[in-house]
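Revision sheet: structure tokens.
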Amino acid sequence: MSEQPERWGKASVYPDMWVDPDDDPRDSGSPSPEGERATLLDFLTSYRMTLLMKCDGLDAEQLARRSVPPSTMSLLGLLRHLAEVERDWRNWITDGEPLPKLYGEGGDFAGAVADPAVVDEAYATLAREQAALDAELARHDDLGERLGREDVALRELMVHGVDEYARHCGHADLLRECVDGRVGQ
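Predicted:
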């Protein structure tokens, strides 16, 4: 076969990858982190970046496209959903009244409409919620410490975070392939 499939990415060295390995923002070139906390944060950060990479270069219509009917799942919905999830995790480990839902019940996906303002808001909200959770995580050194109304161990929350992002990055792979054929990495 002499022609490359259209789905292949922008990478030039390895055209079947999303980006050239030297340009992959998830690889700092440093050795893997030392310790459990650093490892968990590294994985969470990598999956957060992976989700953003899967959404990169798409317009509002493409991000909002529901690629697997009758599901309401879309890449834009995933951005909004994970902002909601980041807020929920913060609610798990803080005391006091929980912060309200960002999009209401089911609104994370249902409200993911093809509007550039909705897209901009989704990216900004996700970044804000990630930063807020990261700040809360940084306040606690002991991964075994049980926190908040849920009495959840910090370790459990971080592992859950990695799991949630990993699962949704798998969804994002399939959704992106349905939008423009890009796959992988």
